[in-house]
Write a structure and sequence with these properties.
By secondary structure, the chain is of the alpha/beta class. The protein has three domains: 129 residues, NAD(P)-binding Rossmann-like Domain (Rossmann fold, 3-Layer(aba) Sandwich), CATH 3.40.50; 181 residues, NAD(P)-binding Rossmann-like Domain (Rossmann fold, 3-Layer(aba) Sandwich), CATH 3.40.50; 76 residues, Alpha-Beta Plaits (2-Layer Sandwich). It has 13 helices and 16 strands. The strands form three sheets. A seven-stranded parallel β-sheet has the order 8-7-6-9-10-11-12, sandwiched between helices. Strands 2-1-3-4-5 form a five-stranded parallel β-sheet. Strands 14-15-13-16 form a four-stranded antiparallel β-sheet, with helices on one face. It binds nicotinamide-adenine-dinucleotide and 3-phosphoglyceric acid (3PG). The site of 3-phosphoglyceric acid has 10 residues, from loops. Nicotinamide-adenine-dinucleotide binds next to α5 and α7.
């Protein structure tokens, strides 16, 4: 029975899915763990479930010999060293769209609140003022929303924004089907120059670091609004503070930060603290009851499917093999180095032991190949042990 370790308060729907599939050796943690405690928690786990705050880097993955699969119970997977996980034969799954709608609704709400200067007005009323001025307050209708990253969330934000009468333009590094009346801009600067509200929906990582910086902030319309609910690394916060001080940017909403507090009692350190035209939220774009319950179920189902059948459909770092019902007496999962002759080597190992193959699927990706083999006869652990010893083998499991 695999040992399953779930961190970061993953919704109980995940445990329900595991239990229903017969898996009961489950350890849950209500929070993310500091690096040493995380290392210890992951060390003897077969399955690990995390959200965005647990960093599974090389040093942790290298010390987790039993680890067979990782589930990110969120969209982002940049917190996992995906290349190292692949080298170790560990597929990583996520929930690519279970919290998409939650983020999109929050972003549209923030766009409207900032266009109306609600954060400032709210603060003023709390401070004893009753300022009914309409100055600087605008309807969303007829304003232009500029979306950077028109993937699942970006396109959903665009659809919602059109429903309240906004004009939608977007910039993406890939060609995307525009939904509704949205218009693509291949040139980011041209898009920034036209948008009243700019919202970011790109992945994290080096390629998107500081997309919003002093130069791109200067390319935005004077008095525009900036929203970031993607990853903290995509906005240069010092440059944003300077643009807010200079009134180049009229307001901002940030849900993610370059460095986020490690726990609920640690305050956010940011030059944006205290500005009443800036909405700061604690990375809760995807935190709704609906999305967390859906994510718990969706990712746990993917992990159970992998444990029971070896299918890697939807894995973000691994050769993808679709589900196929077992066709023989045993199923062997074999991850090997992607070298010429690897499949022939594997099959000759079966032939030497007089094991008949009734079905086989192979897929490769970068440095590894992944084969699911269904055999006519029941295969013993001795065969798996022999396969594990072979130099082409990265990982081998018997189902
Ligand atoms: N705040 C939250 O709680 C929360 C919740 C969910 C997702 N997210 C984050 O939102 C982001 C987007 O999620 P998604 O599901 O829409 O992802 P997605 O993969 O569907 O879309 C990302 C889009 O960004 C585009 N892109 C990549 N690099 C780009 C660049 N340099 N310039 C322009 N476009 C670029 C891609 O082509 C793709 O279309 C991710 O970083 C995810 O981690 C945050
Ligand atoms: O990648 C995501 O889905 C978001 O960043 C949400 O992450 P969380 O589940 O850790 O809040």
């Amino acid at each position: 029975m695999p040992k399953i370790v779930l961190l970061e308060n993953i919704h109980p729907s995940a445990v329900e899915v595991f239990n229903a599939a017969g898996y009961h050796d489950i350890v849950t943690h209500a929070t993310a763990l500091p690096p040493d405690a995380l290392r210890a928690a992951v060390h003897d786990a077969d399955v690990v479930g995390i959200r965005s705050r647990s960093h599974l880097d090389r040093s942790i993955l290298d010390e987790a010999p039993a680890l067979g699969v990782v589930g990110c119970f969120c969209i982002g997977t940049n917190q996992v060293d995906l290349a190292t996980a692949m080298e170790h034969g560990v597929p990583v799954f996520n929930a690519p769209f279970s919290n998409t709608r939650s983020v999109a609704e929050l972003v549209l709400a923030e766009a409207i609140l900032l266009l109306r200067r609600i954060p400032e007005k709210n603060a003023r009323v709390h401070q004893g003022h009753w300022d009914k001025s309409a100055s600087g307050s605008f309807e969303a209708r007829g304003k232009t929303l500029g979306i950077i990253g028109y993937g699942n969330i970006g396109s959903q934000v665009g659809t919602l924004a059109e429903a309240v009468g906004m004009r939608v333009i977007f910039h993406d590094i890939e060609a995307k089907l525009p939904l509704g009346n949205a218009r693509p801009y291949s040139d980011l600067a041209s898009m920034l120059a036209e948008a009243d509200v700019v919202t970011l929906h790109v992945p994290g990582g080096r390629a998107t670091e500081n997309i919003i910086n002093a130069q791109t902030l200067a390319q935005m319309k004077r008095g525009a609004i900036l929203i970031n609910a993607s990853r903290g690394t995509v906005v240069d916060i010092d440059a944003l503070r300077a643009a807010l001080d200079a009134k180049q940017i009229a307001g901002a909403a940030l849900d993610v930060f370059p460095t986020e507090p490690k726990g609920p009692d640690e305050p956010l350190a940011s030059p944006l603290i205290g500005l009443n035209n800036v909405i700061l939220t604690p990375h809760i774009g995807g935190s709704t009851v609906e999305s967390q319950e859906n994510i718990g179920r969706e990712v746990a189902e993917k992990l159970v499917r992998f444990l029971q059948s070896g299918t890697t459909k939807g894995a973000v770092n691994f050769p993808e093999l679709p589900y196929q019902a077992p066709a023989g007496a045993s199923r062997i999962l074999h991850v090997h180095r992607n070298e010429p002759g690897a499949l022939a080597t594997l099959n000759s190992l079966f032939a030497e032991r007089n094991i008949n193959i009734v079905s086989q699927q192979l897929q490769t990706k970068g440095p590894i190949g992944y084969v699911l083999t269904d055999t006519g006869e029941r295969v013993g652990e001795d065969v798996v042990a022999a396969l594990r010893r072979h130099p082409i083998t990265v990982r081998c499991e018997l189902l």
